[in-house]
Amino acid sequence: MTSLKPATEAELVDMVQDALAQRTPLDVTGTGTKKGIGRPMQTAATLDLSGFSEIALYEPEELVITAGAGARLDDVRKLLDDKGQEFAFEPPDLSRLLGAPHSGTLGGMLACNLCGPRRLKAGAARDHILGVAGVSGRGEAFKAGGRVVKNVTGYDLPKLMASSYGTLAALTTVTFKALPKAESEETLVLEGLSDEDAVAAMSLAMQSSCEVSGAAHLPSALADGTAKTFLRLEGVPPSIAYRRDKLAKLLTASGSHLLATDASRAQWVALRDVHPLAAPDGRCVWRLSVAPMEGAKLVAALKPHIDMRWFYDWAGGLVWLAVPPENGASADAIRAALPSGHATLIRADESLRGQVPVFQPQAPALAALARRVKASFDPVGIFNPGRMQQESA
Questions:
Q1: Cβ atoms of 211 and 120 closer than 8 Å
Q2: pLDDT at 149 over 60
Q3: Which of 126, 230, 298, 307 registers the highest number of CB atoms within 10 A of its CB?
Q4: Whether residue 111 has pLDDT greater than 50
Q5: What pTM does this model have?
Q6: Which CATH architecture has domain 2-180?
């Protein structure tokens, strides 16, 4: 397959215009770490955007960073960390889960709308993007947004790039908000709770005034034989101590203990990066987003029918499932049991990804709107054709 690697925006425009004229489908990619998410594509060339990797601007005092879409997330994290800042939405490093060499790029982070356990409090990548620049499938360079929130007027195109998986535009530059890191953190660990009791405890904690920034639950099979429920508190130590004591009294939990700062951070990185289900055992991994109180009910409905491993994040609103590789029966069962929300197939071999809808099928009206948006950016369909849904004949 031909590989195109532009070094400048002008080169990118020329390459896209040439592909448009010849109706050449392009595999739009950064470093390819998330290539396995989505349907298999039939493309004639790879459009490699990893050359757009420069950190163009970082103003810690303004809490803003502008970088090439091909800038590596690992490098940007280190740059922010050196200044005591971070992406508050905790973008995960899925390299262990996906068998990738590193955590990917900023453009991939936005395209997949990544976020971690703090989504309940801080949102996802789409909630922190300020501006983008790139080239549409029309072969036209464009810019949208700016360096501050108040610069976003009219249509908020940067947010539209979130969850687009490279199907709308080839991005060259992205601008994100950064925020100061919490001075410290602790995690209250409750032991031995059933899934249902854990979801109830997490819900109670999130509804309290204790400002819990993460709530997750590992069943006993993934937690050394004893189920563990994690509730994270962040901030300055006196505030954490006050809220921790208040939370412990609220939950009246026996068998609880605390994780201090370093252990707490390590635990939440493991949860963020889906380490409990990341073993290279051939299992397919699903990401289910539901109403928090529905998570345990959904798992209970599926357990009699599917050999699966699972854990909960977002106070039960995010369920990670690992199921044996099969011919699509698990996909049908999962979607049939889903009361609302959506299910996304994050890890599976190419054969299965070609058989089942990787992303949640859309309602007709929403699907029609998505097609109109796609047509406005990429009328011929040269960018990542078929990645999000099967192309019409």
A1: no
A2: no
A3: 230
A4: yes
A5: 0.95
A6: 2-Layer Sandwich (3.30)
β-partners of residue 46 are: 3, 27
Q: Where in the chain is the domain with CATH 3.30.70.3450?
A: 184-272
**Token pair recorded at residue 97:** 């889960």
pLDDT at 146: 81
Start-end ranges of CATH 3.30.70.260 in the chain? 279-355
**Alpha-carbon gap, residue 4 to 44, rounded angstroms:** 11
CA–CA dist 139, 371 (Å, integer): 19
Given a cut of 90, whether residue 156 has pLDDT beyond it is no
Distance CA 150, CA 248 (A): 41
What is the spatial distance between Cα 275 and Cα 262, in angstroms, rounded to a whole number? 17
Burial-class residue 23 by CB neighbours within 10 Å (0-12, 13-18, 19+).
exposed
**Chain position carrying tokens 């990401």:** 287
Task: Look at strands 85-86 and 309-313 and give their pairing.
Answer: unpaired
Span 340-353, mean pLDDT? 95
279-355 classified as CATH 3.30.70.260: yes
Poorest-pLDDT segment among 149-163, 166-180, 215-229? 149-163
